[in-house]
Specification:
This protein is an alpha/beta fold. It has a single domain, classed as Zn peptidases (Aminopeptidase, 3-Layer(aba) Sandwich), CATH 3.40.630. The chain has helices at about 10-20, 20-25, 65-75, 95-100, 120-130, 165-175, 205-210, 220-225, 245-265, and strands spanning about 25-30, 40-45, 50-55, 85-90, 135-145, 150-155, 195-200, 200-205, 230-240. The protein has a nine-stranded mixed beta sheet with strand order 1-2-4-3-5-9-6-8-7, with helices on both faces.
């Protein structure tokens, strides 16, 4: 399925994305990381007036299946054309190239989105997104400790889960395991557990309650939920599974999330109202 080796250089990933421009109507450009000698690829697909979905991968360079899963979703035309997309093929290209969790400066990029961005990558991403609003943000990860798929769904207070159950169920129906045992699994920084509700295949997060546990070193999902996204998901495939399974799990989970988002758009959100324009690309 994957058509790529387990280990591949960042240049191969970037080349694979560039090869899609001529066949997939993909608009691809480079975003400068100010103060660092590197750029980030960002791709746009879909009609600019459609509700926009952000999908990203590769914030941790030692989770290589996630960026290739995002590429496979686009390559195989699995994204719902009812939406427009902002796609980030790899948030951390230096970490991807080195096979490390952190970037070239030793920073965990996914703990650098607070305070306006404290890594070159986070600042570039937040600046590029400053005038954008998303119906949904999806960030693809892998977990070394997990034996099955799971997701984080942070929720504003007073909001109920929309994605956890249908996405986890879709992974099970596709024949893959979901995480059911949480003892010994690190699910966040110290103090975050009290803001989390654990269920098979998902962790529901009280976004306001969990934010202080990060001490300002915020992950992308919490920042986007506060500023630019109606909903945010972090998807975790089990790093110990075979390569093609890890790719397939992300494909199934993303498609299931988009199916749920489409259902919301057709029937109105959980409060019984039609979605407003705050999810549209601008």
């Amino acid at each position: 399925m994957s058509r790529v080796p387990f280990s591949s250089p960042y240049s191969e990933l970037a080349s694979a994305w560039r090869s899609l421009r001529g066949t997939h109507d993909l608009r691809l450009r480079e975003i400068a990381c100010v103060g660092a000698p590197r750029t980030l690829l960002v791709a746009e697909w879909g009609h600019p007036t459609a509700p926009c979905v952000s999908i990203s991968a590769g914030v941790h360079g030692d989770e290589p299946a996630a960026p290739w899963a995002l590429h496979a979703l686009v390559r195989d035309r699995l994204l719902d054309p009812a939406f427009a997309y902002r796609l980030w093929p790899c948030f951390n290209p230096t970490g991807f190239a080195a096979g490390t969790r952190t970037n070239a400066e030793g920073t965990d990029v996914n703990r650098s989105f607070g305070r306006g961005g404290t890594s070159p990558e986070a600042r570039a991403i937040l600046t590029a997104n400053r005038d954008r609003h998303f119906a949904l943000s999806i960030d693809l990860h892998e977990d070394y400790e997990a034996g099955g798929f799971y997701l984080y769904e942070p929720l504003r207070r007073g909001r109920s889960s929309r994605f956890a159950r249908p996405v986890a169920d879709a992974v099970v129906e596709a024949g893959f395991p979901i995480q059911r045992e949480w003892v010994g699994l690190e699910t966040g920084p110290p103090g975050s557990a009290q803001a989390q509700t654990l269920m098979p295949g998902a962790i529901l997060v009280d976004a306001e309650g969990e934010t202080p546990a990060f001490g300002g070193a915020l992950p992308l999902g919490l920042v986007l939920l506060r500023r630019a996204a109606r909903s945010a998901l972090t998807l975790e495939s089990p790093r110990g599974r075979p390569w093609d399974d890890r790719i397939a799990i992300h494909r199934v989970a993303v498609v299931a999330a988009l199916v749920r988002l489409r259902a919301d758009a057709m029937t109105g959100d959980e409060r019984g109202r039609r979605p407003r324009g705050d999810g549209r690309a601008r």
